[in-house]
Sequence to fold (775 residues):
Amino acid sequence: MLDRYLVAGGRALDLATGGNIRWHVRRHSLRSTPVLFSVRRGAWLIDFDLRGHSRVEVWESPAGSPPATPAQPTIDTFRAALADARDGRPRALDLVEPLTADWLWLQRVLAREARCAGFVPLAADALGAVLSQARWRWPSWLKTRSLVVFATDSHITSAAAIALFRLATRDARPHLVVRAATGDLTWRTRMVEAPMVVHEAPDPSSTLASEPEGEFLGSPDLLITRAHQLQAAGRVVEAEATARWGVLLSAPGAVHASAQCALARCLIAQRRLLEARAALLQVDGEQAEALRAEVLTASHERRPEAAMADAFLEVLRICQDASAAPVALARVAALLRDRLSAATVAFVAQDGQWPRVMIHAGMTPPVPGRLDVALRVLDTGVAVPAGDGMQSVEGAWPVRYGAEVVGAVWCHWPMGVPVVPADVEILMGIAATAVAPAVHAAVEESRAPGHTATLVPDLIGDSVVMQTIRLAVIRAAASSFPVLIEGESGSGKELVARAIHAVSARRSRRFCPLNCAALADDLVEAELFGHTRGAFTGAVAERVGLFEEAQGGTLFLDEVAELRPRVQAKLLRVLQEGELRRLGESLVRRVDARIVAASNRPLETETTNGRFRLDLRYRLDVLRIAIPPLRDRLEDLPSLVRHAWATLARKTESRAVLSPAAFSALGAYDWPGNVRELQNVLASVMVAGPMRGTIGPAALPAHIARAAAFGPVTTLAGARRAFEARYVKAALSRANGNTLAAARELGVSRQGLSKLMARLDLAARESEPGPRALE
Fold:
């Protein structure tokens, strides 16, 4: 709490009001809780904070007389405005208090509400003094803080006026400006009645150099005149800043319309036609109509689509010229931010249940808590257009690649920037369509092998096949549909199933595996559905089935093709209805378990042969992951050997290492038992080998050593011959020995196939089956 007050030179000041305050530290007890704004010895209690067994009290003098009735509706309105500011929608709150004493009390109430909400309350003059002393840079104690600024209707200093302007146009931090009118005055937006200091000194060569250097009166009429003079002198940027001051400091009416027209002229001179059209949106009169016609003339059309077409072509040019997707998105975001005068433009993708900012253009990247609108667009695919242009607004548009929403483009504008929602919607929609391939590429790059390997660390391997499997695991985990895993025995089907469960939202619940081939039919039913006491011989107690144990989690059915037809029918019923009945009872129970099934035989073949129900296969085969055997991905063998050897070394406390010759011998074997056989071989080698030193190929099992000794040829010609032989034999097998059909499949003539078979010594073997083999 102490950093919300200013302590310097032996005095303590309230930054929200400028009043002198005193600190008191007392011992706190539950029986002596203080009453806010209570009066004691000519001072009133404006704030207190509890620190353990101590209570810090802040007293201010003179006390005055607080009002009899609290302004609860005003406090509720202020809390709602604080919530809007915290959500990234900073705005101004106008208050009218007829009595000055009431405002002094209300200002302290609102200041304490702001402190409790995590904001730093500051008077406008205090904010101006702080920034001017820091050379218009935020000091360290305010750099990351949210602000509530109090401005009254009397007058504010020139430094405060500049600070408010910078906060409204150049800062996207959560903030709230409380503008109050007291006495008999009616609220108006003219907050500056004192001379205002200009940032830049006049150019000595300019015709305006005769004016007093660095200052001019803050009247809106004089500001508009000054803007015209600066634009005539060619100083368009300074003219725009002066015109914006005229817009901010003028009340609605003729002067405000003149200020908007002056601002539009400056924007037209800079070819910022969309912003000029936004400035003239709610302005009437002949001057405004003439400027609108000038905007249309500058656009070379009767409508302002020319500027949008230029922006669209520039977006396409950026996407074509940039070599990398992140570079293209960064340039497009900067272009959109410049064309739309936005505070922040970001490309957002969905990372689990939270939005993730891929690229942004702006001062600070938006935090996920401020991206509710972008998250809504990612979930629904429906654009959220920009709202009222007179307030801080935001909007988001979906980025579609094909039929999938791969991301969203999010845009945020600060308070006071004019926005035309129709123009913004057209331009952002066009840009979202143009950058869709770049966004898709950036999302896919974020799912690179390193990223997926981090999310799924148990699936070892750097081959393209393993990268595809890890990506399939992540995508399957994001849904709740059944998954079918197919692969040979020992290839790691249960490991993939556990990875799906570990990455999914069900990871906090149980993972229940069941080997369907290891139990009899009656026992499988009892294991899956549970049973009551006495349901069958040996059922001496009630038991909960695996479906109920896996409630909210994952049920893994290994070797599901081994289930008998009776169990298949009951399993289909549970999958269809989501209900089951234990053996021996009639009570129906609801279950919610994600099914992951595995089979070492293709279910399509089992269904064709009549051994597996077709409707159950359709229920299980919603998402399919095929795991290739180890012999088809031998490039993963070194990674698997290193991982398995390190795991076994930790268990056995061995420091032995495998020699390069042993690695080579392991790679020469085709591993019919897949990864499970590899783990068992390495375990036997480690146990039988020494605890220190290097283990060579002689320590490997005999069948692996023989495969290494009589392994495949090492020359390129021999490898090519072996490949051609396997390829021709596979084509002949698919053609059932018909050489004409095989020749058509291989793209050669019948005579060419005969010569190829003779060269590969395949003719005699392939012609043996019968007279139809060479038809």
In short: The chain is about 45% helix and 15% strand.
